[in-house]
Amino acid sequence: MTNKEAIDRFRRIALGLPGAAEGSHAGAVDFRVNHRIFVTLAYAARNQGTLKLTLGQQADFLAERSDVFEAVHGGWGRMGMTFIRLDAEEDILIGAITTAYRNVASKPLAKKRATKK
C-alpha cells in the first residue's frame, strides 16, 4: 500500500463517522466532530496518524500492538496523544479512529456510531 493509499483509507474511515468533518490546524489535516479534533494526519509523511486517546486507552493500545501504536513524544503523549501507523490493518484503524472519535463526540453521536452496523 502506498502512503497516498494509506492516507486516503484513513480519511475515508474518519469521514465515515457521523458528523465528522475534515479541517486544518497549524497547516496539518485534521478530522473533527463538533469542532473538536479527534485524529490528525500531521505526520502522514512519516506514515503516521495521530489519535486523541485517554491515557488508559493509550496504554491498552500500546500493550496490544506496540508495532502499530506509539505515544507522541513529550507532553502531548503524556496527555494521551498517540501515533498510529497508517498502513496498519483496516480493522485496527477503524477501532482506533472510532475510539478517538467517541472521546470527543457528543453522546448522541457516539451512541449512533456504536449501534450503527
Question: What top-tier CATH class fits best?
Answer: Alpha Beta
Using the coordinates shown, work out and report the CATH topology: Aspartate Aminotransferase, domain 1
Q: What characterizes the major β-sheet?
A: 6 strands, antiparallel
Annotated CATH architecture: Alpha-Beta Complex
Can you count the helices? Answer: 4
Order of adjacent strands in the largest pleated sheet: 1-2-3-4-6-5
Radius of gyration: 13 Å
N→C terminal distance: 27 Å
Plain-language structure description:
With 117 residues, this protein is an alpha+beta fold. The protein has one domain (3-110): Aspartate Aminotransferase, domain 1 (Alpha-Beta Complex). The protein has helices at residues 3-15, 55-64, 90-104, 107-115, and strands at 21-25, 28-33, 36-43, 48-52, 69-71, 81-85. The protein has a six-stranded antiparallel sheet. Helix 1 (3-15) crosses helix 3 and helix 3 runs antiparallel to helix 4. InterPro entries: YjbR-like_sf. This is YjbR protein.
Helix-strand layout with pairing:
Elements: H1 3-15, E1 21-25, E2 28-33, E3 36-43, E4 48-52, H2 55-64, E5 69-71, E6 81-85, H3 90-104, H4 107-115
Protein name: YjbR protein
Concise overview:
With 117 residues, the protein is α+β, with helices and mostly antiparallel strands. The protein has four helices and six strands; from the N terminus they run αββββαββαα.
List keywords for this structure.
117 residues; YjbR-like_sf; Aspartate Aminotransferase, domain 1; six-stranded antiparallel sheet; YjbR protein; alpha+beta
